[in-house]
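Service request form, structural biology core

Requester: graduate student, group of Dr. S.
Request type: structure prediction, single chain
Budget code: on file
Notes: please return the result as structure tokens.

Sequence provided:
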Amino acid sequence: MTQSAINGQGTTRRAVVTAAGVAGLAATLAACGKDDGGDSGSGSAGSAKDAGAAQPSQGASQSAESGQSGGGDGMELAKTSQIPEGGGMVFKDHKVVVTQPKAGEFKAFSSICTHQGCSVGDVTGGTINCPCHQSKFDITDGSVKGGPAQKPLPGAQIKVQGSSIWMA
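Core staff response, request fulfilled:
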């Protein structure tokens, strides 16, 4: 034994085991944290990629200004003219995707993929597409059109007032 262990001033086995357990727990919690849609499919974090009031989808979508308040029913997401017919836009910060399957018909769904919780990436070709594992959802009803997802995207509440689309 060392002199410090004899005097009771050294590190005890209990302290070492506790420290190792805490380090393991911290590593586990860090691994379970959210990412930006990599291969783990664990979700979307608040990275610079996700920053901003409205992050529209790629492909068939167009840019939209959001964050304007009014009407007392929530936040304005976009103007109706900004949602392409047969396409849609993903608003990552609101966790919603808004589609326009037919002219003047607007639908909204959760933008969180039902497979493993990634944020859907875009709306193209009549489907809402998840970049993590290539699940595809119908823009009309959120039903699964392809990929590993088994459950449809849940509907979300929006309100169309004039030429504006609002969170309900």
